[in-house]
Amino acid sequence: MPAFDFVIIGSGMAGAGAAYELADGARVLLLEREEAHGHHTTGRSAALFMESYGNEVIRGLTRASRAFFEAPPQGFADYPLLTPRGCLHLARPDQVEALASVPGVVEPLDKAAVLAMVPALRPDYVGAGLYEADAMDADVAGLHQGFLRGAKARGAEIRLNAEVTGVARRADGFVVTCASGESFEAAAVVNAAGAWADVVAAMAGVRPVGLQPMRRTAVIVDAPEGLDIRAWPAVIDVDEQFYFKPDAGRILASPADETPAEPHDAWADDMDVAVCIERVQDAADIPVRRIVRSWAGLRSFVADRSPVIGYDLETPGFFWLAGQGGYGVQTAPAAARAAAALARRRDLPSDIVAEGVSAEALSPARLR
Question: Would you state the torsion angle of the CA atoms of residues 250, 66, 330, 303, taken in this order, to the nearest 10 degrees?
């Protein structure tokens, strides 16, 4: 059987990032059950980078990721990974007090300034807003493919159509078996299986961390006729009841739903699509004559909504890289470096620690 230092299960953003970092000095095998990388959550992202988004751990990982996004290694990506977008945190008159809870560097906007920024908003809907100038559009595919290409260039072996059907513990590591019948020895297993991470853990006889996949819906609609939307920021309801933003000349919108679901290939529910359109049209004069496209993805959380990155204390060699929720893209560079350091049993990188993130805050031990 081929022997590896790390077998990584799942080639979404988390698994690809871990493969990229770990392949620099280790023997890595990356296994993906689908016929394409990023088929599930990674490929269905809203593609925003926002330092205000998420809890303290998420925001720390996001801040620690910005340098990589802004200046990736030579040859990593063909185009910039971040492009200016900005984000308008929008409040109705009855929501204005909630604006005080938005963290990060934001600029207060009165009603007139909000309407000048996004003319399609309905004047009677708008109370006030906050503007986050440093919010960016992220090139999700560019980041993901850069990780995969870089991992391969560093010697990682990457396999598609490689569904894992068994993870057997043994004295010196694991044997990972695929549906094809192939088996691979590994000193450590990295569980980056997204919504299926608890399922993979069960194969290895590892206690679950309580991962809950949540379905989120998105739609693409045409922009209002006669309006140039290219300079619009992303618009997010301050209580996260909806958001919308320009997307390749059209508008991407979501009701920001979080519907508990079992791990599966998610699809958009007609009722969620209708709720999305209703909420957006309540806030803005955006006529919707057709749904250009709709989809859904699974955002998977544990109880405290922070990622789970670290070795399972009850099962030596079983490494968790899961629970990224809806923040897996914006935190990916720092999360990959954190995972590689902890998987090598080293301290977290100092720049990540400087942003207030600790190994204890990421460890699966906190959930036991």
Answer: -150
Q: In whole angstroms, give the CA distance from residue 132 to residue 337.
A: 27
Q: What is the mean pLDDT of the chain?
A: 97
Question: Is residue 254 a contact partner of residue 217, using CB atoms and an 8 Å limit?
Answer: yes
C-alpha span between 14 and 8 (Å, rounded): 10
In the structure, what pLDDT confidence band is assigned to residue 43 with cuts at 50, 70 and 90?
confident
From 278, 324, 271, select the one nearest 294 (Cα to Cα).
271
Measuring CA to CA, how many Å separate 200 from each of 178, 189, 190, 275, 320?
12, 10, 10, 34, 10
Assign 45 a pLDDT band (cuts: 50, 70, 90). confident
Crossing angle of helices 332-343 and 13-22, rounded to 10°: 50
The amino acid sitting at 323 is G
Whole-number Cα distances in Å, 116 to 109, 135, 283: 10, 19, 15
Is 11:158 a contact under the CB 8 Å cutoff? yes
**In the predicted model, what is the mean pLDDT of residues 103-113?**
97
**Is residue 2 pLDDT above 80, yes or no?**
no
* Separation CA 323–CA 261 (nearest Å): 14
- Find tokens 């599930």 and name the residue: 40
Question: Following DSSP, what letter does each residue of 23-73 receive, concatenated?
Answer: TTTS-EEEE-SSSSTTTTTGGG---EE-TTSS-HHHHHHHHHHHHHHHSPP
Q: Can you tell me whether residue 89 is helix, strand or coil?
A: strand
CA distance 56 to 176: 35
| Beta partners for residue 177, in sequence order | 166, 183
Predicted pLDDT of residue 291: 97
